[in-house]
Amino acid sequence: MSTTTSKPNKATALTQVQALIAGTEKHFPNGSFTLGNTAYTTATLTQALQSLADALAALSAAHVRVTDAGLTLNGIETKVAPLIRDYKRFILSTFSTATQQLADFGLQAPKARTPLTSEQRVAATAKLRSTRIARGTTSKKQKLAVKGDVTAVSITSVTRPAASSPSATPSVPAPTAPVPAGASK
Questions:
Q1: CB 179, CB 185: distance < 8 Å
Q2: Each residue of 173-183: pLDDT tens digit?
Q3: Exposed/middle/buried for residue 95 (C-beta within 10 Å: 0-12, 13-18, 19+)
């Protein structure tokens, strides 16, 4: 058995305890031991070790059941969550102002939205305008008024290097302007 500085996980601990039991039964079938001022026989020592092994195995099985239950719950929640959301919306729309009926379902009526004061509205409008200016955001009509201005178009032919020379760097083709319909090259 190796000594480690960190605490082993449950599976490793179970394996170590089972190895201790097997080694004790193999090498000391009728032995008696004094450990920590207490006398043990092979049977009592094996019984104590077996109780630990049983507890570790039960814990491992419980962890597996919890993991399986968690996966089952996640799968069901994934399917049922949209149903619950839609049903709550239906209930809220059906009993929108009837607080007692909503309370029967464990829901509360949505709070009425408080209108902005005139100072808050002025501040929000100023913030909106300054944000649009800072971002350069424009309306649809202003976007339609923006036109590009092309002054000159130059077309350059691109030749690619031979494929046989691996040391040559590939050239990147220069962007070309689209040719208007009806024009010839």
A1: yes
A2: 555 555 555 55
A3: middle
pTM as predicted: 0.46
**CA angle at 115 for the pair 88 and 91, rounded to the nearest 5°:** 10
Reading phi first (left if > 0) and then psi (alpha if -120 to 50, else beta), residue 111 is in beta
Supply the DSSP string of 99-155, one letter for each residue. Answer: HHHHHHTT--PPPPPPPPPHHHHHHHHHHHHHHHHHHT---HHHHHH----------
Of 67, 53, 51, the closest CA to residue 19 belongs to: 53
Closest CA to 1 of 16, 11, 13: 16
What is the chain's mean pLDDT, rounded?
83
| DSSP, res 176 | -
- Give domain limits for the chain: 10-104
Kindly report the number of other CB atoms within 10 A of residue 48's CB atom: 13
67-87 mean pLDDT: 95
Dump pLDDT digits (tens) for 114-152. 999 999 999 999 999 888 888 887 888 888 877 777 677
For 94, the enclosing helix (H) or strand (E) is helix 42-94
